Amino acid sequence: MIRAGVLFFIFGVLSVEAALPGRDWWFNASADTGWINKPLPEIQAAAERGDAAGQYYLGRAYFFGQSGERDMNNAFLWIRRSAEQGYAQGQLLTSRFHYLGLATRRDPAQGFLWASRAAQNGNVDAMALLGMAHSSGDGTPRDAGKAREWFLRGAAAALESARNGWRISISKARAARHGGPNYVEALHWYERAASNGMASANLQVAPNV
What we know:
65% of the residues lie in helices and 0% in strands. By secondary structure, the chain is an all-alpha fold.
C-alpha cells in the first residue's frame, strides 16, 4: 500500500516551501550521465540552438547554480522551453515549478496539464504525480479510481524498464561468454527503476518481478 506520508515527502506538491528546494526535489533522468558534467558553455550553446535536452540541462544548471548563484527564473525559463518542445523530463519539471509556485505563480491546473503531457510521453514520475494529483484533488477533481490507475501505470512502466535492463544484461553476459548473467549490471537497472520519485512506492504496488 502507498502511504500518503511517503507521497507528500516525495512530491511536496501541496505546500510552498520558504527555502529553495534542493536535490531531493529534483528528479534524476537517464540522460543525466551524458549532460551534467559537460562544461556550461557547451550546454548553453546547445540550448540556444534549440536543442530540447540542452535547454533542459541549462535550466538544471541554473537551478543548481552551476555557474555561481542559483537562478530560479532562468531555470524555469529554460525548463519551460524544453517542455514546449515535447521533452518529457522538461514537462515533468515544468509541472513541478507550477505546483510549487517556484519562479511562477502556483497554478495546480498548469501543473496537472504539464504532468499529463509528460506522462503521455512515457515519463514514469509524471504518471505517479498524476496519481498523487487525482488522490489529493490538486489541479484536478479528486478521483480515487484514476489515482490508482496512474499509480499502477507508473509501476508497470518502472518494472518494465527494470525487466528490460535485466534482459539486456543477460544478453550482454552471454554474448561475452561470461558463463552467466551480469548480476551487477542487472542490479543497476533495478536500482534505476527505484531511484526516481515514486518508483520505490510503485514497486510496493506491484512487487512481483
